[in-house]
UniProtKB/TrEMBL annotation:
Residue ranges crossing the lipid bilayer per the database entry: 27-49, 232-253, 409-428, 448-468, 931-959, 965-984, 1005-1027, 1073-1090, 1102-1122, 1142-1162
Name the UniProt record assigns to this protein: Polyamine-transporting ATPase 13A3
Ranges where the record places region Disordered: 1196-1229
Compositional bias ranges of the Polar residues kind: 1218-1229
Amino acid sequence: MEKEELKIVNKDEEDEMELQGYRVCRWRVAVVSLGVLCTGGFLLLLLYWMPEWCVKATCTRTTVREAEVVLLQSTDDFKRWFLAKVRVMLAPGRNPFDSLETQTTPPMTNGHSPHPSDGFTQELIRKYAEYQPTQIRYFTLHSTKYYWNDEVHNFEVLTGLEDREVTCSTVHSEHSTGLTSNQQEYRRLFFGVNEIAVKVPSVFKLLIKEVLNPFYIFQLFSVILWSADEYYYYAAAIVFMSVISIATSLYTIKKQYVTLHDMVSAHSIVRVSVCRASNDIEEALSTDLVPGDVMVIPSNGTIMPCDAVLISGTCIVNESMLTGESVPVTKTNLPNPGEGDKEGDAAYSMEEHKRHTLFCGTHVIQTRFYSGELVKAVVVRTGFSTAKGQLVRSILYPKPTDFKLYRDAYLFLLCLVAIAGIGFVYSIVLSIMNNVPAKTIIIESLDIITITVPPALPAAMTAGIVYAQRRLKRIGIFCISPQRINICGQLNLVCFDKTGTLTEDGLDLWGVQRVEKGTFHLSEENAYKDTLVKSQFVACMATCHSLTNIDGKLSGDPLDLKMFEATGWILEEATEEETSLHNRIMPTVVRPPKQLMPPEPVMSPEQDMELYDLSSAYEIGIVRQFPFSSALQRMCVVARLLGEKRMDAYLKGAPEVVASLCKKDTVPEDFAEVLEDYTKQGFRVIALAHRRLESKLTWHKVQNVNRDQMEANMEFLGLIIMQNKLKAETSGVLQDLRRAHIRTVMVTGDNMLTAISVARDCGMIPPQDQVIIADALPPKDGQAAKITWRYADNPSKHVGKAPRLEEVQINLEDVHHTHKPQDQYHFAMSGKSFAVITEHFQDLLQKLVLHGTVFARMAPDQKTELIEALQSVDYFVGMCGDGANDCGALKRAHGGISLSELEASVASPFTSRTPNISCVPSLIREGRAALITSFCVFKFMALYSIIQYISVTLLYSILSNLGDFQFLFIDIAIILLVVFTMSLNPAWKELVSRRPPSGLISGPLLFSVLTQILICLGFQTIAFLWVRHQAWYHIWTPQSDACNSSLRANLGPEHNSSEERDDHNIKNYENTSLFYVSSFQYLIVAIVFSKGKPFRQPSYKNWPFVVSCIGLYIFMFFIMFYPVSAIDEFLEIVCVPFEWRITLFFIIIVNAVVSVLVEGGIDLWGAKCLSWLCCRRRKVPKARYMHLAQELSVDPDWPPKPTTTTEAKHPLPGNPPENGSSYQIMADS
């Protein structure tokens, strides 16, 4: 039996797993089968719940290469187990990217000869006869196929063309011609059908899966046991409740599957035109596509059925499925660096080349092309490997959400099972001592277990969540994951996206500030002036954008749209017919409106700012476009004025970038101050630049010129200032959250200084607090990664002077602390810095997220990483965003709220109809109310089972029990009524600074439950023993009548014979006394545990609960003081003297007073007493972020000074970093 080390699949990815190989062992399977028969199928259930036990019980360990079954365990905190069967596939080769036509036929070393090319000669027929197919081992898990790779001796996922690490030039040279039919079929063996198939399970499958839940199995066991003991009515009631619970659950799950299936299947199968290697174009279904196929994008647009990279033409795409923003994006063809340019020839990456990649599920609105040349794209990924496939897979197979409440609930149940075990042994011993028949012993001892672990618990626990879900729906918050409502009650940090969440969606033009001869003019409100119509500034605003006419309406980036609209110019595009008449793309033309043009050529007072004095026709054609690149932070166009030979280049982008590309003498000296002044006020600033091109640059040369050549030696034109207004509700909501001690963090794709400014405006960063910017640089030229700390100066300290950033680099140890800011500093960093810190400063990351408030320029996957980093220091994280670019973060957070009703809402647990963040405090309040309700219900259900357990245990001592209808009355009339109404308390009106406990295993909570158990035990024992010491007491018989003493005196001894008593010995004075006392105890603990402020409205406002309790009290007192023979007969209670009822009444009153006083005392002083006890032992905070905050409060070098730099250490091979730290402070020479 050969063993080997654990293999890792999906290394360093979110779904990383350890893998072990197993071979099925026949004798083990036989032993397990025998065990299943002996346990009546219970062992089979146990193995179904525990896949790792199943594999280890039926298989023996072997090498992964020879495995028949693989056992996988996730490497995350949840350590989930999965098993998968290894299958074998026959294929002509091992590598899907092998070219079948070029393979030779003699058998290779691995014992197979490849598939020959199509031909009809005898030689080929003979080769076919010799052909030996290759066996390829694979397994499927979570809609992903893992293939065995002999080179790396492990299973691997085939994602697509990127597996080959193709360069941009290779995509053009080797993959632009298409595949033959044979190659396509061969690749489809490996990559499968191009379809994101969401199978909706049948109701029967879902039912089996739901019914095999451990709790329902326990309920089935209970029902069988009660039926054997003739408790038919209660068994029927539990069956009825379970059926309703299962039906509701099935309906919800089925509905979610159908919704997802409908969302995915819409437009998933379309007809596409595919280029074949023989230059033919054939029609095919999108399901036939494989990586490497070349598809033709139709001119009237399509929904992309796969991820593909454009190799010719231009596409205008709506990517709202991915980004949540329904703004059309222009996609250009992948640049072809050519054979000579090795440096510029980078490996194709979907992330880096997303401006050239068409993603699955996105809508291609229209295409632009050269005459006679088709718009083509090479298929890169198909099926579940695509961007849309990954999103659907993450929804189908979500990571479990770890929550202390549920873990503690299981621990609590184990404690109850332990108590039940004591009762189980006690009842067996007692029954044997009293010579009770074996059948009765078995039933009654097992009955103790079903009493202690209440079968109605899941229904009771769900009630509070269902009510909270209904209340959320009323305020426009929809929930697809109800279990998360409880978790939202624990949130102590909320991340917000900026644009569209904290601020309005669009931008408004605030003003422009032109530059002339290297100095700034005064800012102007707009550029819609006849004096500026022919200026280069307005020409740049009118041409430098990626706007397009779709159905006669201008559309594109909102910023571009606002900028172009501010000029008042008109944009005209060539029609498809016009384009096809020419041998090149007809340029897009922009021209000013007639009313802005002078009626005839006149001399303008600003001679030097005029372009030309052509009055008859003044229009500019856009000859070439270099689209906006977030990596370069700029866009550029080449344009030509009608009738002019020389062309102009116009540049627009981030001010710092544009200024760096301009001639120094054209950039004003006070540029940095002016820019910082605007960004600190929260304005979005765009800079413009211009350059006259040489006359030798013709149209054809411009089409092939390098972007870098074009964007050099520009002349600085000035700034456009855009305003992104805060939503009206933002500041108030953030203030509420801050008062409730809930941290707020901004995660945005926007500029850093703008984000800091918005954070100050909305109150996320208070005015007096300091902002520290962490600028991290990756390792370069042998130097280690380093972080430079810059302090963004407080705007309030600078009056009339533009703020500056301080930046010096000296050794940390040279600085002595004079003032240590505590909680008055915030870290801000960009996505690039975050990536460097995550990779090179892992132990610094946790310190940074403790006070990190602004994270700017963050990519979608970085948002998810940030959420995980915050969770790693034990924060309960909420995320509020409006786009599908927040999808990963919304799903990963403990409570994700989407403000968009697009695809983001499918991934997000919560979706708000109100498009602002006011839904966040509402959700937290409802979460807190639901959480406290869960605690109340759990405590009540625990007490209910213990009270019943005490009653039954005391009655067992006299070989008695509670009657069937007594159980029924307690469980249905009292318990269910109380449980389902005590959950109805609405949430408290405002968020308080206190948070509810996160788990059941907390000091005050356990103390509360324990004291109430002791009180109930004490008073039940008093009643049980006291009744036996009454003067009128005797062993009850059917002839007994304690209410009438004269009749009792006349009874002879023969009437006391046990033969005339009922089989179960239900009717007796002890039973009746305990029934009265315990029935009131259930109501007492229900009222005691039903807490109101500060998380829920007080119980007296919950009228169904109040009415239920009053009704039950009246009924109980009525049957106690005014016996009705029909009710007594039904409940199997006996008549007791009136004075004993008065005694019981006093026992109940004293019990109620003691319970209320003790619970009140625990609420007031319990936590203080426990904290006082804990303080004597120097308690370490449980949450990691509190522990870190304590450490940092005494660290003299934290936070870093504005004059320091931190460098990553170079760990020597085999030597871990000293003190576990991966960074060190370096002195700057």
